[in-house]
UniProtKB/TrEMBL annotation:
This is glycerol kinase. Residues 9-263 form the Carbohydrate kinase FGGY N-terminal domain. It comes from Erythroxylum novogranatense. Belongs to the FGGY kinase family. GO terms for molecular function: ATP binding; glycerol kinase activity. One of its GO terms (cellular component) is mitochondrion.
Amino acid sequence: MAKEEAVFIGSIDQGTTSTRFFIYDRNARVIGSHQVEFTQFYPDNGWVEHDAMEILESVRMCMTKAINKATADGHNVDDALKAIGLTNQRETTLIWSKSTGLPLYNAIVWMDVRTSGICRKLEKELSGGRTHFVETCGLPISTYFSAVKILWLMENVDAVKMGIEKGDAIFGTIDTWLIWNLTGGVNGGLHVTDVSNASRTMLMNLQTLEWDKPTLKTLGIPAQILPKIVSNSEIIGKIGKGWPITDIPISGCLGDQHAAMLGQACRKGEAKSTYGTGAFILLNTGEEVVPSKHGLLTTLAYKLGAKAPTNYALEGSIAIAGAAVQWLRDKLGIISSASEIEKLASEVDSTEGVYFVPAFSGLFAPWWRDDARGVCVGITRSTSKAHLARAVLESMCFQVKDVLDSMHKDSRQKDQAKNEKGEFLLRVDGGATVNNLLMQIQADLLGSPVVRPADIETTALGAAYAAGLAIGVWKKEEIFASGQKAKTDTIFHPMLNEQLRNKKVKSWCKAVERTFDLADLAI
C-alpha cells in the first residue's frame, strides 16, 4: 500500500504580546512551532502601541525557526507545505505608506484608550448617542474599535493627513498589514482584510459584509484607504519573494477570537472563552444577527468561503485577564513568572473578602465604562499576597460570568446547546487555561461545567482549519466533527454551593461599582 503523501498547513498567530508560527499535519497535529515576544510601548497614560516593523520581523523569525525545527525532525516542509492561515489581534490599527511600505505611526493597540475624547464627542453629536452605529455594525462607539483610532490618527498625525491627501496612505488591522507585506508589499502587495477583522472596525455593515457608506460619510473616513473584504476561507494570494517560504497560498484569515471559535468547532448555540491578555467569550448564533440588550457586541463568527453562509455571534470582550497576572509579575513583583500564580493562590482557600477589579483602562462588556479604573477592596491586616493572587484569578472568572449571564439573557434558551443533563458547557482555550485552579474557580462561579481541550492553542488551529478547508485538505464536516471528540478533554464541574456563589457575585458587583468615575484621579 502506497504511503500517503504528507500535507502540511502553516498558521501565523499574531497576538497582543507575541507572534507564533505553527505547522500542522493532515491530522491537525503540530510538527513544528516557534514563538517570539515583541515590545509594547506605553507613551502616555492609557496609550498602548506596537512597532509594526518589529511585528513583521517577528513573523519572519517564527516562520524560519518553526520550519527549521520541523525539518530537523525529518519532515519535508519545503515540498509538503500547501497553504498558510493567518490569525491576529483584532482592532489594532495601522496606517502606512503604500509607496514606501513604512508605517506613518506606530500601531495603536486594541486596548488603547486615547480616543475617549473622540468617543464622547461623537456620542454628543450623533442622534443615536453611544449606540448610533449598532444597528449597522453591531458595535457601540468605544475606544476599543478601529474607526475611532483612524480618526485620532487623521486628526493628530501630520504624516497620516498628508498621506491621505496624496492618496498614498492605506489603513489596515494587523492581518491586512501582514498580508500586504507577505504578498509583495510595495511591489504589488494585496490590500485585503477578512470579514471577521472588518466586523471589528465599526465600519462594516453586518448584513452586506461591505464597508458602510453612510457610516464612512458620518465619520469622514475616506473609503479609498480601506482594504477589500474577503471571506475567512479562500485563496487570497501567494507569499512573495524575501520570505522563508514563497509561492505558498494564503488561504485562511480570521481575527483571533473567531479563529478560536473555529478551532473549538463551535456550532450554533455553543460558546467559547479564550483567556489571553484579555478574555473573549463568543456564542455562535448561527445565520441570525442577534442584537444585544445587555451590553454585548453583535459580531461575525465566521464565513468559511466566498459563497458560504455567514455565521454570527454574540461577544463579550474583557480588556484585562491574563494581563493582570503580568501586572502582578512585572509591576508588583509578587510572582517571578506567570505560572507561579496557581501555587501562590492555592495557599489560601478563599480571598477572605478581597475583590480585585482590573479596570486598568476602563471596563469592556457588559459594563462599557471607560471612566473606570482598577480597585482592590476588602483588604485587612491579614490580607497576604496569596489572597491578592487568588483575587486576581477570581477577577478573570467573575468577568467571564458577567458576560455569560448577559449572553443567556440575550439568546433564547432553546438556541443554547446543552449536554444530556441540561447543562450549558463553556469551552475554554488560551494560555491561562493550563491553570487548573483558574478553571475550577470558573466552573464554581458559573455553576456549570467548563471544558478544556487537550490542545489549548485553538486560535492557531482555527486559522489552519480555514486555510486547509480552502484548498481541500479538510472538509467542513471533518472540522466540526473534531468538536465532538471529547475523550481527551478535561471537564471541570462546579463544587461551590449556590448560596455562597450568589453572595460572592453580589460582593463582586459592589466592587465593580467602586471602579466607576475614577479616570480623572490621575495627576
